[in-house]
Design goal:
Blueprint lengths: L2 H23 L10 H29 L10 H27 L7 H30 L2
Helix pairs in contact: 1-2, 1-4, 3-4
């Protein structure tokens, strides 16, 4: 497994575990009466958690793939990143349109923020899943 694939796995697992836990804990019981500060502190904690897990995971991936750590991105890597970015960008765009649609259904600000955050998370999951699929199956 290449370092680029390991990095995608680290990012995918960190996103799934930490944001998945966040949305199961907070996202399913959004109450407009809850102070916005409580949600913001949880979001900040989640973002910091994802950053820490990604840093530690990438350090471990680099140590385990020390011979691949100085590899440059070639044309296939650039193509994989472009395809993943293109598709995940479309997913993000659809999610933001759905989040904006909450305005027409009297959605609260915190609900709209959660829809946008969910769009970002799903976009990141799609991005990393496409990279993994390409590295795993296309480059074999």
């Amino acid at each position: 497994m290449s370092l680029k694939e390991k990095t995608a796995w680290v990012s995918l697992l960190a996103t799934l575990l930490i944001y998945g836990n966040y949305f199961l804990d907070v996202g399913l019981k959004i109450d407009p009466a809850t102070p916005t500060n409580a949600f913001m502190m949880k979001m900040i904690t989640v973002v910091v958690g994802v950053i820490i897990v990604n840093i530690v995971g990438n350090i471990i991936a680099n140590i385990s793939s020390y011979k691949d750590s100085d590899e440059k991105y070639d044309e296939r890597d650039r193509l994989i990143r472009a395809r993943a970015g293109d598709i995940s960008g479309n997913v993000l765009g659809v999610g933001v349109v759905i989040a904006s649609g909450q305005l027409f259904y009297n959605g609260t600000a915190i609900e709209i923020v959660h829809w946008v955050l969910l769009s970002l998370v799903v976009s990141e999951i799609v991005n990393n899943a496409i990279k993994i699929a390409h590295y795993r199956f296309w480059l074999q």
